[in-house]
Amino acid sequence: MSKSDACVLSIDAGGTFLKAALVKGDGTLVENSFLRVPVNSHGSAGAISSSYRQLAVLGLAKARENNLDLSAVGVCIPGPFDYVEGKSLMTHKYASVKGLPMRPWLQESLGDIPVCFLHDSHAFLLGALWNSTVYGAERTAGVIIGTGLGFASMLNGRIYANLQNGPGISIFSRPYKGRTSEDYVSRRAILSRYCELTGCTPDTLDVVDIAGLAYQGQAEAQLVFKELGQHLSEIIHDILRDNHFEGLLLGGAISKSAGLFLPQLKNDLSDLPQLRYIAAADDIDMAPVFGAARAALFPLHYQYELT
């Protein structure tokens, strides 16, 4: 098959589902190739590996259905993880497969093709910037707000990483107001603050419900998102300033409601003259999938020092 007939299986490995799609070398999604396989990250090693094997079989079938050659696999997954060896080091989930090589689970059905693992924060930023005509800068930061709080950075086309190929700059556990940054900017932070203001219980609603109330004009819901913007700006202000970041992209499920906190965030970061843009990524859900595909298709260059 020719190069134009090649594709990669790009996997976004979450704790409850493995989401995947086939992506061509030019960054286009293969039509109707989206796949979703349940995975129990707290299950047995056999159950977890079975989900990955199932996804590999489905991905190969989709490629053949479209007369495409499945040439590589990209997997974005949170840390701690050995991204070179393809082994999870997590204990809060995927504990039963800690230290086990995951690459063979996929290669069993797909053959000895390259399987690239990368941090999910890096995948978001790589995907959000791929083929973008709007966003792009020599020094770009990404903030991912969802269950937790992630950060990624790209310097001169290279992902800035630590020696384990995780994020070179990490913010989730940074001390902030006597706690951690993630205690103020995350799903649980929004639910906790809203219930503190209204007297509700966190298990009766989710962030999307609070966002809906904010858009409808409820003062308490609007205040929660305004404060989120304030907290985030305080957490990342000096990082953006000291490292001369020129662009900031927002990802994660909560950034789908960025319109509720972007005005505050932009106002609080307006004293950074080098910061040319602050925006939510165009396709938040698919950015990590595209990023994992990009890492599988092209050599992933890391930078281990801030310059």
In terms of quaternary structure, what is this?
Answer: single chain
CA-CA gap between termini: 42 Å
Name the CATH homologous superfamily of the largest domain: ATPase, nucleotide binding domain
How would the global form be characterised? globular
Number of domains: 2
The share of residues in extended strands comes to 15-25%
Determine the structural class based on helices, strands and strand pairing.
alpha/beta
Mean pLDDT: 94
Organism: Ruminiclostridium cellobioparum subsp. termitidis CT1112
Enzyme class: transferase
GO molecular function: glucokinase activity
Family: Belongs to the ROK (NagC/XylR) family.
Structure in words:
The protein has 307 residues and is of the alpha/beta class. It folds into 2 domains: 3-118, 2-Layer Sandwich (Nucleotidyltransferase, domain 5); 137-287, 2-Layer Sandwich (Nucleotidyltransferase, domain 5). It has 8 helices and 15 strands. The strands form 4 sheets. The protein has a 6-stranded mixed beta sheet, with helices on one face. A 5-stranded mixed beta sheet has the order 3-2-1-4-7, sandwiched between helices. Strands 5-6 form a two-stranded antiparallel sheet. Helix 1 packs parallel to helix 2, helix 5 crosses helix 6 and helix 6 (219-242) runs parallel beside helix 7. It is globular. The protein starts with 5 loop residues before the first strand and ends with a strand.
